[in-house]
């Protein structure tokens, strides 16, 4: 008995710990059985749950410019609007799903089709699509990409000249690859005016 | 093929394959010995087996010592690999880059522990002159060989699947925890760590084999958590950086190697008595003094950073 009992004890303890770690920590990519007709309430910065982007498999670390797609009572999470557009384009329910983006100016998830967008925001994957609920918020948004500022030099955009976009336009840009990830587009968007 | 990313990895895989081949060659003799060994008879077969036994012992000894050294080389090459994998700043990112990394690292640590125990059993066997432990020793070797075959399989899978285009998470994200498991706070964790350490000392001093085995395994887990979430911030002198692997890097004077090696040695000597007893039914108590020695070195190194920080700044992080 002395030769086996401690091993059995260890196995029981490790099973308990494994179960504990499974219960306490979870990576969420899709939330099932979501019955409401409103954006899902994401709570970041907890020990228990981590939300993972469906397109790039990275953890959603902040609310800004994150997005979600709701279809058939399933909620899919994304850390970047560009991720959402690219992922949704590959799905067969792309025209039926409901999309929400986190707006920078009002700080809430809003309908993606009603939002205004800019193309030079600082987003996690660098697509650069920043969502705003109000058009004035989008027009007055400042550039935030400090590394690019270093490359091109300081610049200021006149408020009136800042171009803002609707969702369908942004979708075309994302699918054509005309985002900040494209060096030519990046230069064009961020050049000194 | 991602497997040829670095010279280190090519060398590593090459040596691993050679060692496995050597082990498989000796396995042929091991099976023969297990089948026909009888020390009390005087046939020519038995004599040839005894000679063969010495040869096999030498080969296995050599491979085992090589494998133990290779484990540290593995850690070093992972460190190098973190320059290649996007997003990885230390081993944490490289290990977590695909599903096989963590399994491989745990398996490797387990195998190194088992190999160490095999070396001790082997020494006892040769010392006994009549080879009384030869059968359990070689059965145990078969078990280790089985694990090693799994290990090389996982190694190839791991290195082939190292991502080069997708960024990976690294320590700043992986170990970012608002609350520690079981509702521990940092100060509670440190207190638990020192309490369990004192228990390991007491049980080792009293030579309690089973209790020492259990408490040392507990100490291994608690030490991992304490180093990651409490002591590492004093080594980095950064309240937000918690990582058990960055301390292995040059910027921190490779202090991580000393920390982890002393911990593993301390725990190894603490648990090996019981494992040897359950294998060959012989009580060995002279290993506990090494356990006390290495565990104390480990705790002293960890405590040093906290104390130095407190003396310099007058506050804790």
Task: Describe what this molecule looks like in 3D.
The complex is a heterodimer of chains A (193) and B (317). With 193 residues, chain A is α+β, with helices and mostly antiparallel strands. Chain A has one domain (25-190). Chain A has 6 helices and 9 strands; from the N terminus they run αβββββαββββαααα. Chain A has a 5-stranded antiparallel beta sheet. Chain A has a two-stranded parallel sheet with strand order 1-3. The relative contact order of chain B is 0.10. Chain B folds into 2 domains: 2-160; 175-313. The radius of gyration of chain B is 22 Å and the shape is flat. Chain B contains 10 helices and no strands. In chain B, helix 7 (186-206) runs antiparallel to helix 10. The interface between A and B is medium-sized, with 19 and 16 residues.
Please outline the helices and strands.
The complex is a heterodimer of chains A (193) and B (317).
Chain A: H1 5-24, E1 26-28, E2 30-31, E3 49-51, E4 67-71, E5 74-78, H2 81-89, E6 98-102, E7 109-111, E8 116-118, E9 130-132, H3 135-139, H4 146-152, H5 167-176, H6 183-190
Parallel strand pairs in A: 1-3
Antiparallel strand pairs in A: 2-5, 4-5, 4-6, 6-7, 8-9
Chain B: H1 7-36, H2 44-81, H3 91-95, H4 100-127, H5 134-160, H6 171-174, H7 186-206, H8 209-236, H9 255-280, H10 288-313
Helix pairs in contact in B: 1-2, 1-5, 2-4, 4-5, 4-9, 7-8, 7-10, 8-9, 8-10, 9-10
The helix/strand class of chain A is: alpha+beta
Number of H/I helices of chain B: 10
Count of helices of chain A? 6
- Broad shape of chain A: elongated
Q: Greatest interface and its residue counts?
A: A-B, 19 and 16 residues
Compressed to H and E, one letter per element, the order of chain B equals: HHHHHHHHHH
Radius of gyration of chain B: 22 Å
**How many E-type strands of chain A?**
9
Counting copies of identical and different chains, the oligomeric state is: heterodimer
What is the helix/strand order of chain A? HEEEEEHEEEEHHHH
Whole-number count of domains of chain B: 2
Give the distance, in angstroms, between the N- and C-terminal Cα atoms of chain B. Answer: 45 Å
Strand content bin of chain A:
15-25%
- Low-pLDDT segments of chain A: 144-148
Radius of gyration of chain A in whole Å, from Cα?
Answer: 21 Å
